[in-house]
């Protein structure tokens, strides 16, 4: 698990710019717009928050939001980015109990499954 953390930590400071290049700014805008249209949310958990790109929009819709990422550096960037949001808790994920697989299929569809 340490290797995955180290891998993602390398991208923490420039994650959004790299994401715009890889995913495409248009697709990211589509996802951001879709998230902004969510109905008010109660307590919400975001897995794999990266640098908090989507977290800041979700925070406006959720009564309480917990965001996690495997990378300590991503968590630090997200904490800085969301420090004004009083309803947000940012934590480093510890995935030793469960394996969480997030598979990005399209900007509109994520497949999430858990194994223990």
Model description:
The structure is a single chain. With 116 residues, the protein is α/β, with parallel strands linked by helices. The protein has a single domain, classed as Vaccinia Virus protein VP39 (Rossmann fold, 3-Layer(aba) Sandwich), CATH 3.40.50.150. It is built from five helices and five strands; from the N terminus they run αααβαβαβββ. It has helices spanning 2-9, 15-23, 25-36, 55-61, 72-81, and strands at residues 41-47, 62-69, 88-92, 99-106, 109-115. The strands form two sheets. A three-stranded parallel sheet has the order 1-2-3. Strand 4 (99-106) and strand 5 form a beta hairpin. Helix 2 crosses helix 3. The radius of gyration is 14 Å and the shape is globular. The two termini are 15 Å apart. The relative contact order is 0.18. Residues 102-116 have low confidence and may be disordered.
Q: Nutshell version of this structure?
A:
With 116 residues, the chain is α/β, with parallel strands linked by helices. The chain has a single domain, classed as Rossmann fold (3-Layer(aba) Sandwich), CATH 3.40.50.150. It has helices at 2-9, 15-23, 25-36, 55-61, 72-81; strands spanning 41-47, 62-69, 88-92, 99-106, 109-115.
């Amino acid at each position: 698990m340490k290797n995955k953390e180290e891998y993602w930590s390398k991208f923490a400071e420039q994650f959004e710019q790299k994401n715009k290049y890889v995913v495409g700014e248009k697709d990211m805008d589509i996802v951001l717009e879709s998230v902004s249209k969510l109905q008010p949310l109660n307590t919400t958990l975001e897995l794999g928050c990266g640098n908090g790109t989507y977290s800041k929009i979700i925070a406006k819709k959720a009564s309480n939001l917990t965001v996690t990422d495997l990378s300590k550096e991503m968590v630090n960037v997200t904490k800085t980015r969301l420090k004004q949001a009083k309803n947000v808790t940012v934590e480093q994920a510890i995935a030793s109990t469960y394996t969480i697989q997030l598979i990005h299929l399209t900007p509109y569809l994520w497949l999430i499954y858990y194994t223990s």
